Amino acid sequence: MSINFKELANKYQTPYYVYDFDHITAQYNELKGAFKARKSLVAYAVKANSNLSVIKHLASLGAGADCVSIGEVKRALKVGIAPYKIIFSGVGKIDSEIKEALELGILMINVESDAELQRVEAIAKELDVVARISIRVNPNIDPKTHPYISTGLHENKFGVDIDTAKRMYIQCKNSENLDPQGIHCHIGSQLTELEPIKESVKIVADLVRNLKAIKIELSFMDIGGGLGIVYDDEKLIDTNEYAQSVLETMFGLDITIICEPGRFLVGNCGTFVTKVLYEKVNGNKRFVIVDGAMNDLIRPSLYNAYHKIEVLNDNKEFSDCNLVGPVCESGDFFAKNIDLPKTEHNDLIAIYSAGAYGFTMASNYNTRGKVAEIAVENGVDRLIRKRETFEDLIALEEEFLK
Ligand SMILES: Cc1ncc(COP(=O)(O)O)c(C=O)c1O
Ligand SMILES: N[C@@H](CCCC[NH3+])C(=O)O
């Protein structure tokens, strides 16, 4: 369905994020459908887009939640995701988060180190409960993605190596307060090659079989997220092939599959819309300056990521420019050396594939309020997060005047 960016700009001003909820539904159904041969749970990685309406929409389709802080766990619970569909990962959980997660009775705490396992056990003992856990395995596989978003190599901080994981499962067996329910592996994000995923799932499935042989029987195998989306002209992993290859690896195992995609479910469903303020030329260099900035969408500045850009005017006179925002950083750009048509004040520009890691990575740098978020479903638009005002930005500050 096409979204009328101009109408939304008139109604809500710019910049804004808009999310196509019908597209989110289609993405969810495609993935869930691919795993239909097995018991499965699609646990949405809340970090990709934490807006309550987005999570609630996915919850209404049946999704669970993959969370990386107790705040994300609470977001998931707030919109009605059942505790038994929530997983809590992260390399640095603090004691109070572990305690709350245990009290809330979520499906599993996904443990990422030996030391964390000791803390979970101690806290479970204090509370006199049994902690359901999974262990995140770091299989040392190169996911072939941007180095900043690789998570499955030993040089990355995530998870534990396979031998440590095995030792930790044995420790669980001997503990009254630890119940190993699952195993987890997530090797990176924006993956466009199936082979590394296959390899890592195979390593994990082999460990599940080894554990079974010593009477440690797991109920869940969490294969992580990571499925890539289109930013430019990427060739994507076929979801059916993905699911099929995972299912083949699990031959003979009676285990529920969990996958935890973020970007795949929401990335291509979101657009960041900004408007032109000025054009100028410094020497030979043309700049198009817009009202959105790196604080609203940081991926180009942070990863040199490319997002497809469309100027919504009919001008056919294209020339090279940098598309930049008002923030006081030379790194504040959406694209460098890109051919764009000549623009006028107030022309709109759509920056696509911005539904994941867009708003959630936004900041208030330069005392800029976070932009509005809008959902469109069945042709109807709704404001799902108001634009922040100056008052919102200073609300938590104390003024110590001399
Ligand atoms: C443990 C875990 N699960 C799921 C995800 C979601 O990743 P993606 O948005 O690439 O699907 C991430 C982020 O990379 C993650 O760290
Ligand atoms: N924030 C990253 C992805 C990190 C995924 C979370 N582990 C991005 O914008 O692509």
Considering the chains and any ligands shown, give keywords for the structure.
alpha/beta, Lyase, Ornithine Decarboxylase, Chain A, domain 1, TIM Barrel, 2 domains, eight-stranded parallel beta barrel, 12 helices, globular, binds pyridoxal-5'-phosphate, lyase, Orn/DAP/Arg_de-COase, pyridoxal phosphate, diaminopimelate decarboxylase activity, lysine biosynthesis
Give a short summary of the structure.
By secondary structure, the chain is of the alpha/beta class. 30% of the residues lie in helices and 24% in strands.
List the topology elements.
Layout: H1 5-12, E1 16-20, H2 21-34, E2 40-45, H3 52-61, E3 64-67, H4 70-78, E4 86-88, H5 95-104, E5 108-111, H6 114-127, E6 131-136, H7 162-173, E7 178-184, H8 194-213, E8 220-222, H9 239-249, E9 256-259, H10 263-266, E10 270-282, E11 285-290, H11 299-303, E12 309-311, E13 318-324, E14 333-341, E15 348-351, E16 372-377, E17 380-385, H12 390-394
Parallel strand pairs: 1-16, 2-3, 2-9, 3-4, 4-5, 5-6, 6-7, 7-8, 8-9, 11-13
Antiparallel strand pairs: 1-10, 10-11, 10-15, 12-15, 13-14, 16-17
Helix pairs in contact: 2-3, 2-9, 5-6, 8-9
Residues 47, 149, 189-190, 299, 357, 361 line the site of lysine (LYS).
EC number: 4.1.1.20
Domain Orn/DAP/Arg decarboxylase 2 N-terminal: 22-266
InterPro entries: Ala_racemase/Decarboxylase_C, DAP_deCOOHase_LysA, De-COase2_C, De-COase2_CS, De-COase2_N, De-COase2_pyr-phos_BS, Orn/DAP/Arg_de-COase, PLP-binding_barrel
Arithmetic mean of pLDDT: 96
Shape: globular
Any idea how many domains?
2
CATH homologous superfamily heading of the largest domain: Alanine racemase
Q: Identify the bound ligands.
A: pyridoxal-5'-phosphate, lysine
CATH-defined architecture of the largest domain: Alpha-Beta Barrel
